[in-house]
Structures are given as structure tokens and as C-alpha cells.
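Suppose you are handed a protein chain with no further information: no name, no annotation, nothing but its sequence. What can you learn? This example shows the usual starting point.
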Amino acid sequence: MNAFWDTSAVLALIFQEPHTGEAQKAAAEVTVACAWWWLEVEAWSGVVRRKGNNEQKAACRQALKAFAWVNFPRSKTPELLSLNAKHGLRAADAGHLFCFKELSRAVQGLNLVSFDREMIEAAKRERLLVWG
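A reasonable first move is to predict its three-dimensional structure. Written in C-alpha cells, the prediction is:
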């Protein structure tokens, strides 16, 4: 499966959470894992804020190695803002959704792996594929 990951799914791989089993299942199904480059900042910040131990920090570093990183040019910001005017997501979630939507145009069958309810609902309203 080609998958676009958001931070909620990556952190579920690092910490024991209600969605950890689902995150592990998604990781096992992935052939290509993509993410917006900002996920690196969010995931590391999530580990630090949760006072992750050395093992969890190492798991975060390892998980981040698996991604093909994507971004969008500054010239696309008006499109991102327009998309988010429809959904009202938090700023970083808007960036994840925008990158996912843009990449979905080029990568057939790209699925969003997320456990963020608002982002999942927004992706579905955009008629994008959501894993699970």
C-alpha cells in the first residue's frame, strides 16, 4: 500500500496508545510511506513533550527514516488556505491534508494513515482514500 502518514499515526507506533495496534498493522502493509516534511518536527516534538525515554527517541528516529518527504512551494499557500477554509483544521493538519491531496494526484491509490478524527473527516469530504 502507498501511504501518506500524519503525526498521530507515527506517534502511535512509538508510544502505547489506543491506536497502536492499528498503526502497526498499517506499517506492515506499507510499501511506500510518504509524509509532509513537517511531520519530522511534530513527531520529535511529540516524543519530547511526552518525555520519551531513549528507546522511544530511537524509535522515532528510526520511524522517520522510512519516509519519502514531500513539501509544497510557497506559491501554493493560497490553495492551502482555500482548502482549509472548507475544513477549519489546525495549521499543521491543514498542511498535512494539503500535501496529501496534492500527492494523491500523482500517486495512484495513496491512502492517508491517520488517527486524527478531524483530518480523516476532511480527507473523506475531499474524496481522498483513508486507510482502515
